[in-house]
Amino acid sequence: MIRILFSALTFIFFSLNLYSEENKTFECSICACETTKNTTLQCKYGNHEFCTKCIYIWFLENDTCPTCRHTHRLQRIIVQLESPIHQIKINAYEKLREYIQKNPLHKNVLRKRNIFPILLNQLKKNNGDYYAVILIGDLASSNQANKNLIRQLDIIPYLIENLYGTSFDMKETSLLSLSEILNANDENIELFLQLDALHKVKKISNSKNTRLSYPSKKLLRIIDMYNKKLKQEKIKSERNKVQSKKTKEENHPNTSNPKVKKEKMRYRVKKFFLRKIFRRKS
Ligand SMILES: [Zn+2]
Ligand SMILES: [Zn+2]
Questions:
Q1: Residue 248 located in a structural domain
Q2: Rounded to whole angstroms, how far apart are CA atoms 71 and 43?
Q3: Helix runs in the chain, H state only
Q4: Same structural domain, 46 and 123
């Protein structure tokens, strides 16, 4: 049993490449093996590296760096997000949600601790991880830097894919998280529209299931607001164009205007004759 568990752990750990720098091997100070799959702990007096497998097992029992004993409570929880033991994983997600609720600035702390690649890994690995989807939504809420990173890491297509699945829970959380990600971020909305997901959300919003129709309507409202904003901007820019054309004409009469042309011609002819008369007299 222990052996099976251990091999399962090993498999998961080796599929991680968190913080890893490719082609750079190092010796893990816990197991003394040469590896490239490493996790770096940022300790008080420098960084300490371990293989991802070892540090995970270490963090099951401890919350300090094995080398310098620097405390890493948060890092420990982040590492546990990838635990193959369901309860440890859920507890880690719950702790991080509480951590964010305590202080919105903690969303930035988690971003800097590279939490998004871990969450993306979970989305890929577990055919859409319910808890990862919730946490992504929490991290995106009212945080533009996180919203942008979510777009850059290509997390949005995974959330859209969940809308085509069969799980109500997954659809509901994906819709809610997408709402947070798209809200007040035009580039994310544009990507969402490019990915052709709007018709799917519209379809879901017509369903009789209130658990799904509520979050889908929320998402549609955000896109509606964006479209209204675009329309208003278009009207405004057209109005400005007309206005600037008008002032241009007032300052520099348009030569293509036939009336102006005629006037100019008349002026030239007048000048010509006046000059002739003047010359004759002199
Ligand atoms: Zn090791
Ligand atoms: Zn250390």
A1: no
A2: 8
A3: 2-14, 52-61, 73-80, 86-102, 106-112, 115-125, 130-140, 144-152, 156-162, 168-182, 186-194, 198-205, 210-251, 258-281
A4: no
Q: Residue 78: which of 105, 45, 40 has the closest Cα?
A: 40
261 within domain boundaries? no
Give the model confidence (pLDDT) of 227-268 as tens digits: 999 999 999 999 999 988 888 877 775 556 777 778 878 888
Q: How confident is the model at residue 109 (pLDDT cuts 50, 70, 90)?
A: very high
Q: How far is the CA of 99 from the centre of ligand 1 (A)?
A: 29
The model's pLDDT over 157-176, given as tens digits with 9 standing for 90+, comes to 999 999 999 899 999 999 99
Domain extent, residue 53, equals 12-80
Q: Which ligand is nearest to the CA of 50?
A: 1
Neighbours of ion ligand 1 (CB under 5 A): 28, 30-31, 51, 54
pTM over 0.90: no
- CA 29, CA 50: separation in Å to the nearest integer? 7
For the chain, what is the domain count? 2
CB 155 within 8 A of CB 119: yes
Whether residue 135 is found in the same domain as residue 212: yes
Looking at the structure, tell me whether residues 165 and 214 fall in a common domain: yes
Cα separation, 190 vs 156, whole angstroms: 11
113 and 230 within one domain: yes
Please tell me the distance between residue 131's alpha carbon and the centre of ligand 1 in angstroms: 28
Q: Find the CATH number of the domain harbouring 232.
A: 1.25.10.10
Question: Do both 119 and 220 map to the same domain?
Answer: yes
Same domain, 36 and 124: no
